[in-house]
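Design a sequence for this backbone.
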């Protein structure tokens, strides 16, 4: 006996996806087109699409349609600092180098820079009064022209007296950490807080992910400390949780071997990356 019609349609669409007839990232025919093609009701077609979505083969973007899921290899990022150089931590040029080492291209949007009042979360992270002026620098980051991460860094407004380029709308090409060090503000350490959560509407739009929360995001709060243990930066970075992974090295670990094995690894976590 034949199975339910919605499942037959789902199986046929899956075959077309597996064969490459429906390519990864391609938009599927509309519901009306599928209704006509399969001589089925709207509810039956929707049932087939739900079946494929449940298998992770397609995803729907509100107002745009249903698309074949892309099989994109994750980016592996080392969050800890290289003890030999003091650099790294998934930030700036080191992150770009990690992406390049995987045979891929990292690009960053022009920064959006300004001054705003510190909300409670930013004020608490920087240990400044709520409502104090903070400098913000926001960037959108891409890998192989795909949206990869959103990153916003906050600095106490007072740092601009010693490091005026924080207020420049141009990119700080050598990286903010290096620039601040040249101005006598050395990053002596940082503390990362990692959270996996549902995306908000801005993140859903940027990453092009379903609005139902079936694809989560990973968010890293990084608080950086200077040589006097002052909090000088809060960086909030958001990634697609399904396309990023972290490596955290503890102790005497060869940095060149700090990659995730194919099955994950007991001391390594899914997620990824760093700071503007």
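Sequence:
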């Amino acid at each position: 006996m034949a199975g339910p019609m919605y499942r037959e349609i789902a199986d046929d669409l899956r075959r077309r996806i597996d064969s490459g007839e429906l390519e990864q990232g391609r938009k599927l025919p509309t519901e009306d087109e599928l209704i006509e093609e399969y001589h089925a009701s709207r509810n039956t077609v929707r049932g087939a699409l739900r079946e494929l979505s449940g298998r992770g083969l397609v995803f729907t973007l509100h107002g745009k349609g249903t698309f074949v899921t892309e099989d994109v290899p994750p980016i592996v990022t080392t969050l800890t600092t290289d003890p030999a150089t003091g650099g790294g931590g998934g930030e700036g040029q080191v992150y770009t180098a990690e992406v390049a080492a995987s045979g891929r291209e990292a690009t960053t949007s022009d920064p959006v820079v300004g001054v705003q009042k510190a909300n409670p979360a930013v004020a608490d992270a920087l240990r400044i009064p709520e409502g104090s002026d903070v400098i913000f620098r926001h960037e959108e980051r891409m890998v192989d022209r795909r949206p990869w991460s959103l990153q916003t860094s906050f600095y106490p407004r007072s740092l601009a007296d010693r490091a005026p380029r924080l207020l420049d709308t141009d990119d700080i090409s050598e990286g903010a950490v290096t620039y601040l060090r040249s101005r006598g503000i050395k990053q002596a350490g940082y503390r990362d807080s990692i959270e996996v959560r549902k995306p908000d509407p801005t993140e859903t739009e940027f990453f092009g992910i379903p609005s139902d929360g079936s694809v989560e995001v990973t968010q890293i709060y990084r608080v950086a400390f200077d040589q006097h243990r002052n909090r000088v930066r809060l960086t909030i970075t958001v990634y697609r949780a399904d396309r990023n992974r972290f490596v955290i090295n503890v102790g005497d670990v060869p940095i060149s071997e700090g990659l995730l094995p194919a099955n994950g690894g007991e001391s390594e976590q899914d997620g990824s990356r760093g700071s503007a």
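The mean pLDDT is 86.
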